[in-house]
Amino acid sequence: MSQPSSSSSSVSDQTHPHSLLEKILNIFAKVHAREGPTSLLLLTNIFLILVAYYFIKPVREGWLSVSVISNLSKLEVKAYSAFGQSFLLLAILPLYSFVSAHVSRRKLITGTGAVSAVCLLIFWLCQPGLLVEQIPFAGVMFYIFVGVFSVTLIAQFWSFAADIYGEERGKRLFPLIAVGASSGAMVGSWLGEYLMKFSWISAFDLILVSLIPLGLAIALANWTDKRGTRGHPSDLTVARWNEAAAPNGEGALRLIFKHQYLTITAVTIMLFNWVVASGDNILFGLVQQAFETTLPEEAGTDAYRQALKEATTAFYSSLYFWINLIGLILQAFIVSRLIQFGGFSLLIITTPIISLATYLTMAIAPVLGIIKMMKIAENSSNYSINNTARHMIWLPTTKEMMYQAKATVDTLFVRMGDGLAALTVLLGTRYWSFSLNTFLIINLVLSFVWVLLALYLTREYKRWSHAKEKQAPTEPQPSL
């Protein structure tokens, strides 16, 4: 059980002066006395997980590009590999739920990290030309593994953070911790590209290098679990050392469909990924359409293809730079202020409204410069504001929901959203001959539904929060 945020704890905190660390962290979020070290540990933890992921992510793409499977095209190999992640998750998640119901959160985190590290080492040994020339389907298996690795470890981290903090501290400190995720993605991408400049490091060696931040993240999670929120473990923290991570596990899918709040959460996150993935596909189509009319070279020639490649690369390089930069600024300085001003309600509704405005603008004024600005606004909001809101949804829930249902929602339902986006493109292009404007209208409708679901979630969040507040800290969590 997470530590209670009682009034006595707040009074106790106010009697201690803020350290220099806490004064600095207060720039980004409202950090109370003695909360700074644990907040920094958790921030560093998610930073290291994202660095590890962005070390292996480009290796995944490179390995898949040299994977030859029957008569499948590269695009088909990538699409089917992404779809295969959902089937692997269906097999893994019941096992994960069973383990989380029988081992402590520390053992769960250590075990999951250790299994991931062993898999990474095995994949490094399976790289083409090391032990054998080519292992069939190794690139596809690595692609699937990396997708599962990213969503599972990140979902588990946020479950752990919610368990450590409880609702009151989570509302205040999650925006600060999420700065680690935003900066980890940026640093991991840059550092991986930098390491590749050394002749003695190959692309596949980044798999081995990723074991360093992964191992450090596991060590920091264990340290955080021992020290608690303020460095002096309470009786509740000590009790959680030996409790199962999810003490009364019913199974992830059963929990999700049993509780309306979790069902709506799962549908909302699935819809969110559907909108975002479809939006990225629409953007790509609009970019290609715009360049086809502006490039001076004749279509079909080598010069035209080269110019199109360079123009597309330059567009996306600039796009990703601004998305990452603005996303980091929003996470560091805006998210915590939104929570202070409007709470969870304002946080959860902001991004779907931005998405609705984005696709409405793209439909009315399909000018490349305007489209670029709107997509920067949408994606940077997704990576900061909406990312924090998604994890805050779980603060008023039970331990079983945090460690079992959250892992399923953040993995399986995320991939289902991606699959629906791919299905939309498949049916819209091959069977119904949709124009880009039609796809935009579909995303407009989906965004509007997303807004309605977000409004419903705010009401349910308040209901769950009020029910949890009525309980004594030592009593079991509510089953709403």
> What about the largest sheet?
none
Structural class: mainly alpha
Mind telling me the CATH class of the largest domain? Mainly Alpha
Q: Name the poorly predicted regions.
A: 1-12, 474-480
Supply Rg. Answer: 23 Å
> How many alpha or pi helices?
15
* H/E topology pattern: HHHHHHHHHHHHHHH
Architecture of the largest domain in CATH? Up-down Bundle
Tally of structural domains: 2
Using DSSP, what is the number of strands? 0
> What is the strand content?
under 5%
Mean pLDDT: 83
Find the CATH topology of the largest domain. Answer: Growth Hormone, Chain: A
Spatial separation of the terminal alpha carbons? 17 Å
Share of helical residues: over 70%
Global geometry: globular
CATH superfamily of the largest domain: MFS general substrate transporter like domains
Q: How would you sum up this structure in a few lines?
A:
By secondary structure, the protein is mostly helical. Helix content is 78%, strand content 0%.
Would you give an account of this structure?
The chain is mostly helical and 480 residues long. The chain folds into 2 domains: 33-245, Growth Hormone, Chain: A (Up-down Bundle), CATH 1.20.1250.20; 250-472, MFS general substrate transporter like domains (Growth Hormone, Chain: A), CATH 1.20.1250.20. Helices cover 78% and strands 0% of the residues. It has 15 helices and no strands. The protein has helices at residues 7-14, 20-25, 36-65, 74-100, 105-125, 138-195, 205-209, 211-227, 235-242, 252-258, 260-294, 302-364, 368-392, 399-430, 436-469. The longest helix has 63 residues, at 302-364. It is globular. The chain starts with 6 loop residues before the first helix and ends in an 11-residue tail after the last helix. Mean pLDDT is 83; it is low at 1-12 and 474-480.
